[in-house]
Amino acid sequence: MPQLTETQAEDQQLLDKLRPSRIILPVLIGLGVVGFMFWRSYKPGDLAPLANAKPVWLLIMLAVLVARDAGYVYRIRYLTQKVLSWRAALDVIMLWEFSSCVLPSAVGGTAVAPVLLHKEGIPLGKSVAYIMATAMLDNLYYVLAVPLVVLIGGDALYPHEALQGGLVATLRIAFIASYVFVSAYAFLMVYAIFVNPRSVRRLFIRLFSIAGLRRWRNKAYQHGNELVLASAQLRGNGLAYWLRASLSTAFVWTARYLVIGCLISAFIDVTWAEFWLIFGRNLTYKVILLIAITPGGAGIAEGAFPTFFGKFIGTPTMTNFMVLLYRIVTYYLYLVLGAIFLPRWITRIFGKRDAEKVLHS
């Protein structure tokens, strides 16, 4: 069997990560958890609020979902300085979302995104730089949003009503620790990209030369090189470039965190104070998803949802219905869209033969 070239190996690795058969496991896990939750607590009368659904809020939720994806498409197109066409930008975002759904949450679509951009004709170095820019902006949004929601929600951000004191304390520690880590990493990326990337690379190498961390030294060195490269690619962009990227990032993440509040409001009467508390709890809910090891957080996202949002919904049966609906519009929808966009993209980039090969794998 002839040895694959580096490009062929990269292509094969990408197609393997995106193959449609990866849908099966997260769907089975997610629906299995929701099914168990329904089986354990189902009471037909508890679904009465469905009869009082508010179509306006359902339309708002759909508008938020569309606006979020449109914001992602806009951001990636303008971050890449319009090298991507609108169609290519849409394909990249849909496949990025798809890969986030079928790969573990800790890995997410970020591992696939640079290769997607590279296959769209952007040099690999620039592709890595653009994805690192999105990661930096995403982290900075979290860094700025957390103090705001803590100021608004205070201790109510933690689900005291669903967790015992010890578990609340553990969640609080995890939330604070994740915030400190994300903040440190975000500002380190800002310093590396705009000030001195080589000093950050040296820091990574020294840090991962410590006993117990040496197994990740090569990865740290590679990441340091990527920061140096990203700095060279991005530092010359003007204020308008970064302002547009920052505003679009704030837009898409705010829309992302609004979905649950809109969904609950479509069936349950909530006050504006509760609506914004739901928004804030999304940031503590995210801590659970960050450590999820299943594809797209399947099973873990469903299982944790009632703990954080059940208070605003009411009965366990209705809460479980909301879990299912939430995952349909924010997770299963992207599995379906990915399965639709994937063959079209592969046919456009690689040709019809590879598309058929992936679809039947």
From TrEMBL:
<feature type="transmembrane region" description="Helical">
    <location>
        <begin position="140"/>
        <end position="158"/>
    </location>
</feature>
<dbReference type="GO" id="GO:0005886">
    <property type="term" value="C:plasma membrane"/>
</dbReference>
<feature type="transmembrane region" description="Helical">
    <location>
        <begin position="321"/>
        <end position="342"/>
    </location>
</feature>
<keyword id="KW-0472">Membrane</keyword>
<feature type="transmembrane region" description="Helical">
    <location>
        <begin position="287"/>
        <end position="309"/>
    </location>
</feature>
<feature type="transmembrane region" description="Helical">
    <location>
        <begin position="54"/>
        <end position="74"/>
    </location>
</feature>
<dbReference type="Pfam" id="PF03706">
    <property type="entry name" value="LPG_synthase_TM"/>
</dbReference>
<dbReference type="InterPro" id="IPR022791">
    <property type="entry name" value="L-PG_synthase/AglD"/>
</dbReference>
<keyword id="KW-1133">Transmembrane helix</keyword>
<feature type="transmembrane region" description="Helical">
    <location>
        <begin position="170"/>
        <end position="194"/>
    </location>
</feature>
<feature type="transmembrane region" description="Helical">
    <location>
        <begin position="95"/>
        <end position="117"/>
    </location>
</feature>
<keyword id="KW-1003">Cell membrane</keyword>
<feature type="transmembrane region" description="Helical">
    <location>
        <begin position="257"/>
        <end position="280"/>
    </location>
</feature>
<feature type="transmembrane region" description="Helical">
    <location>
        <begin position="23"/>
        <end position="42"/>
    </location>
</feature>
<keyword id="KW-0812">Transmembrane</keyword>
<protein>
    <recommendedName>
        <fullName>Lysylphosphatidylglycerol synthase TM region</fullName>
    </recommendedName>
</protein>
